[in-house]
């Protein structure tokens, strides 16, 4: 059986943010065993799972991705929405728009150091819409 819910994350500044708790608070009751598929409905933000214990990791992610895909690249054509928009689309495509997490004992079965990240690539973003599908 599958259930699906939608919710909006609070607006955040540009950068990488651990959203594990906010996601968990917006989920329906979880089955004893199953899967959570989490999808972000945006093209200029992404979600992923990574290190959640050391906040320096969030800073390093921002630094590395800004180095790989900087703003104001002279050959970009899609520039009407500002210099951060097209780089945001590229970064989102590189990281991805969904994650799947096992559910064990009615809880998300993340590793000891893992957390769910919102990767916010726009300078001025609103709350991001999420779709959570629970199988189990």
From TrEMBL:
What does the sequence similarity comment in the record state about its family?
A: Belongs to the UPF0047 family.
Q: What domain of life does the UniProt record list for this protein's source?
A: Bacteria
The cross-references to PANTHER family, in alphabetical order and at most eight, read: UNCHARACTERIZED PROTEIN YJBQ-RELATED, UPF0047 PROTEIN C4A8.02C
Spell out the Pfam families in the cross-references: YjbQ (PF01894)
SUPFAM superfamilies for the chain: YjbQ-like
Q: Which Gene3D superfamilies match?
A: YjbQ-like
Task: From the Swiss-Prot or TrEMBL record, give the protein name.
Answer: YjbQ family protein
